[in-house]
Design goal:
Blueprint (H helix, E strand, L loop, with lengths): L3 H21 L5 H47 L1 E4 L2 E6 L2 E6 L1 H7 L6 E2 L4 E3 L6 E3 L8 H7 L1
Antiparallel strand pairs: 1-2, 2-3, 4-5, 5-6
Bound molecules: zinc ion (ZN).
Zinc ion binds next to α3.
């Protein structure tokens, strides 16, 4: 969690020290001025470090936001047709993709095979039968030959 308050606090104390120095520099001896300047440098160094942390945190959250946007965009373009997913790109249909991998891990795993609309996922090993699947019993095949 980023703490902007700490950075603001460091800048505020740097400003306070600078004001004190400006208003009372004539009253301070050299050693006191040096001490005040050292404190000023310390506060500015703290502020610099805290601002760098904030910057890093902002970069990370930008990246997270981008990843989430991409995920939402993918999700919006997926359609489920029993028993797998298609990814729509305008009128173009891409896929099919594994229902199990997408629903559980949000992974787009392209299904393999397709003969007789039977597909397999190389990731989770699940097989899918599409709407064009035709049941063929072994006995029927046996009688034919
Ligand atoms: Zn899968």
């Amino acid at each position: 969690m980023i703490d902007i308050g700490m950075a603001v606090g460091s800048v505020k104390s740097a400003i306070e020290i600078a004001k004190t120095l400006k208003d009372s520099a004539d009253l301070f001896d050299k050693a006191e001025v040096k001490l005040q300047l050292a404190e000023l440098i310390g506060s500015l160094a703290d502020a610099k470090m805290q601002i760098a942390e904030i910057q890093e945190s902002l970069i990370n959250s930008e990246k997270e936001k981008k990843d989430l946007r991409k995920k939402i965009e993918i999700k919006d373009n997926m359609i489920y047709e029993k028993s797998y997913y298609w990814k729509m790109d305008g009128d173009k249909k891409d896929g099919p993709f594994c229902q199990r991998c997408f629903d559980s891990d949000e992974k787009l795993i392209r299904l393999q095979g397709g003969n007789n609309d039977v597909w397999a996922c190389a990731q989770c090993n699940k097989t899918f039968r599409g709407p064009a699947y035709v049941y063929k019993s072994r006995t029927t095949n046996f009688r034919r030959t």
